[in-house]
Amino acid sequence: MKWTEASVWAVTVAVVALIVSIPAAAKAPGRPAARTLAQAAADLAEGRLDAARAGFQKVSRDGAAAGFERSLALLGLAETALARKDAPAAVAAWKQLAGDAALPLIHRDVARGRIARTQRVQKGLPPRDPGEHRAALPTLPDRAAVLHVAPGAGRGGDGTPARPLASLAAARDAIRAMKTSAGGKLPAGGVRVMIRGGVYPAAQTLALTAEDSGTADAPIVYRAAAGQTPVLDGGIRISAWRPVSDAARRATLDPAVRGRVVEASLKALGVAALGDPTALRRRPELYCRGRPQTLARWPNEGFVKTGRVLDKKGKLQYVGDHPGKWLDEPDVRLHGYWSRDWFDEYQKVATIDAAGRSLTIAPPYSHYGYRANRRYYAVNVFRELDRPGEWYLDRRNATIYWLPGEGVDLAKAPTTLSVLAKPFVRMDGARHVLLLGLTFQDARGDGIHIRGGGDCLVGGCTLRRLGGDAVVVSGGRHHGIFGCTMHTLGCGGMRVLGGEIKTLTPGRHVVENCTVYDISRYKRTYTPAVLLARGGCGNRVAHCLFERMASSAMRVEGNDHLIELNAIRHAVRESDDQGGLDMWGNPLYRGVIVRWNRWSDIRGGTHCGAAGVRLDDMISSVAVYGNIFERCGERLFGGVQIHGGKGNLVDNNIFLDCPAAVSFSRWGRDRWLSRTRRFWQQARDPLHLARYPDLARIKDDPDVSFITRNVFAGCKKILIRDGGIQRTVLNATMSKPLNAEAVLKQAALARSPHLRRILFEPIPVDRIGPYPHAWRAAESK
Q1: Is the pLDDT of residue 745 over 80?
Q2: Each residue of 14-45: pLDDT tens digit?
Q3: What angle, rounded to 10 degrees, do the helices at 32-45 and 67-83 form?
Q4: What are phi and psi of 82, to 5 degrees?
Q5: Are 244 and 129 within one domain?
Q6: Helix (H, G, I), strand (E, B), or coil: what is residue 237?
Q7: Domain total for the chain?
Q8: 133, 149, 183: which is the final residue of a domain?
Q9: How many beta carbons lie within 10 A of that of residue 551, not counting itself?
Q10: Is 435 domain-assigned?
């Protein structure tokens, strides 16, 4: 389902017909400023412009009004001026709003955007800059030294088309030699390494350091040759399959498949590092035709439940008799949610007591302990090789066993075992290095590591079938991950740390125009498509598509991050108590904006539920602005879930067919003061107070957030567990569900007076999600 044909003003076709009420809080708010604001908006919608201007001016000058009320009044004042065709007055209102640090950051940003668009129109330009909200990518110089790389090239190549180099490492060394011979200088325009299509076996990491840096005018570019697909492969091809040689082992298999299971010797293939069946970044995986095979498991689908906990250190009763068949299995692993459904772990079985129907876990034990009636399943059990596509790793004799699918020709079907347990590329202190159009696949570890340095770009790359994360950025400034496709990953897509939260120095790292799906295959929780890691500041995630994930699509920690124009769907499909975007645990995370994203079908959870955006444990003053939430929320959660935080602004969003729009888990004053006490001294830091003035009131108004200018269509409930203390104004509800798809096929409409009544701003639906670009990788679904 794509929103590409019009801005969300097309939604007004149905909104106009179906709006039946402005909620009581908007009709007659308890606060005088809110009442005046609601009346002024109604006056504007009905053409009483003098009354509207007077009302908006009154609120904007009211020192007792809340910041969000005054900023909405200034926005209304500008709209009234535009209705009068008085552009200078509108600009004056926007400038007043943009320059007042005490008002919400998101509204100040809206005002700055409106000023910029007005100035463009005055210059005879289109209102919107085509590059607005898009990353400024490096421009490659017209001229550069060129080196050619080709798979299978012989030794002694010089990088010319006729005598190409054999590897990226050889190209790196050739560039180093160039610089040495030129007194440390690069050729004019830098160096382009043109990498021809084909497979490049990867046994070692390509290590790039500060000496391998380029400059802005002379970058170092490793890129695919035009129209070709170079593949860095961390696996080994298996073709020498044979029937199971040990008759006794073969006899333990299900008679129905016994004659179809085959084996391969890893020693014969030269694989010395066998890894571990379930350890992250050490776990080998078997692929057939690029599809991951399943480590032999029981049950074949879903989970079973634990019985009683017999010992807190890891002795569990099991239900039924099935595990009693595994007494001779040497390497049984269990994957489960052992205490809470928001944290999963693998455990190794030490012993099985068939008579007592119990499993004893080998240390290390589960981080959160064990509870009865928890979900788990077993893997790497030889006897459970009973379903086509399952395999087993026998580390005792360095052999793998496999039950091929129906119709698989063992001689022809490409079958690969992942081997490489290190990153394909590691940049340490490098600057102005670009990786463009490369494919990285079939490894046990992460794809690319970038540490320190600056202005490096991973663009248009495909990272697939990896055991860890696709790209990890640690520190540095202004690195970019652009136009990449990432899928079939053991952990997450991107872990990004940049900037400094203590000094509020922005990292300016950018994740843009990427597609990530089918991840968290080994570690099901806390491995999202993007993790903006703790301690960071000032990074951006934009224009991405994230879908089909067991838990959260994004986890955001730190300050001044911008999450915009992304499409997130079908997340939190297995875990619980999570959101499509999740923030947690620090009331000083400020300046985070979540705007213009589309959250779809996030309906998972086992006990607490799932939300589109979840602000957990003290998260405060986040702006959730201009988003579309459709069919988001489950159980205790709405489309947006706020747990214990305050001052969050949920503004100008559309909630479609959600069980509840916004849900709250209120802490109360005593719990808030107790839990936030350790942050009070840091909240008084002058630098932070200057950036976030509301920190001066960190102790005040616990649990109170601001719900403004939202459209609620077909939601069973609007606010749940709100306590009647939330500050709401200018929200609209609809009498029945909105057929969004039908509405979006219609042309964009002029601004509706019904939506003007709540000062609703357009949502740029046509710009949500990825966009075409020469450096965007193809999606291989």
Answers
A1: no
A2: 333 333 343 433 344 568 999 999 999 999 99
A3: 20
A4: -65, -40
A5: no
A6: strand
A7: 4
A8: 133
A9: 31
A10: no
Residues 56 and 117 in one domain: yes
| Pair 548, 570 in one domain | yes
Domain hosting residue 108, numbered range: 29-133
Q: Is residue 307 part of a domain?
A: yes
Taking a C-beta distance cutoff of 8 angstroms, is the pair 651, 679 a contact?
no
Which of 524, 530, 517, 534 shows the shortest CA–CA distance to 475? 534
Same structural domain, 696 and 733:
yes
Whether residue 613 sits in one domain with residue 558 = yes
For residues 216-224, average pLDDT: 98
Task: Please name the amino acid found at residue 5.
Answer: E
Please tell me the predicted confidence (pLDDT) of residue 90. Answer: 97
Note whether residue 170 is domain-resident.
Answer: no
Residue 459 one-letter amino acid: G
**488 in the same domain as 612:** yes
The pLDDT of residue 521 is above 70 = yes
**Domain match, 579 and 704 both:** yes
Same domain, 590 and 633: yes
Model pLDDT for residues 76-122, shown as the tens digit of each residue: 999 999 999 999 999 999 999 999 999 999 999 999 999 999 999 99
Residue 524 CA to residue 309 CA, distance in Å, equals 23
Is residue 709 within 8 Å of 731, Cβ to Cβ?
yes
Tell me the C-alpha to C-alpha distance, in Å, between residue 724 and each of 30, 535, 692, 706. 11, 35, 27, 12
pLDDT of residue 736: 63
* 158-205: pLDDT as tens digits: 999 999 999 999 999 999 999 999 999 999 999 999 999 999 999 999
Contact 147, 165 (CB under 8 A): yes
Residue type, 128: R
754 Ramachandran zone, left/alpha/beta (phi>0; psi -120 to 50)? alpha
